[in-house]
Amino acid sequence: QVQLAEFGGGVVQPGGSLRLSCAASGRTFSSYAMGWFRQALGKEREFVASISRTGASTNYADSVKGRFTISRINAQNMVYLQMNSLKPDDTANYYCAATLRFTGPQTTAEYDFWGRGTQVTVSS
Questions:
Q1: How far is C-alpha 72 from the geometric centre of its chain's CA atoms?
Q2: Do 30 and 76 meet the contact criterion of CB atoms below 8 Å apart?
Q3: Which of 29, 19, 37 lies closest to 80, judged by CA?
């Protein structure tokens, strides 16, 4: 089992940047592919990005390609989401998730563990 805690959210102006971090407990972090999802007020939770167990493979939602970058450091039990060129539509609660699959899937049902989320607000 793994416990996840996100941090790094906040309020940023359009065009700005934020880096979200997710800290994982346990000694088997490298056994999990990781994903970032987001949920805006009144909307369903949606896929943002995922990364395989080794970090060799990544996937992104079309809406964030070229702006967001997911990365991980297995030795530190950390996964990151670098968000650049932020838009008001990126405003949401961002969640970190873990799955025992080798690569990171894009549906919520395929993830086994979730953090509580961190709020990102993009507003002028």
A1: 11
A2: no
A3: 19
DSSP codes joined into one string, 34-59: EEEEEE-TTS--EEEEEE-SSSS-EE
Decide if 82 contacts 90 (C-beta within 8 A): no
pLDDT by residue (tens digit) across 1-18? 899 999 999 999 999 999
Under DSSP, the state recorded for 112 is: -
| DSSP-assigned beta bridge partners for residue 114 | 97
Counting as low any pLDDT under 70, the low residues of the chain are none
Q: Are 4 and 113 in contact (CB under 8 A)?
A: yes
CA 68, CA 66: separation in Å to the nearest integer? 6
Backbone angles phi, psi at 100, to 5 degrees: -80, -5
Q: Is 63 helix (H, G, I), strand (E, B) or coil?
A: coil
d(CA 45, CA 51) in angstroms, rounded, equals 18
Separation CA 56–CA 37 (nearest Å): 20
DSSP label at residue 107 = S
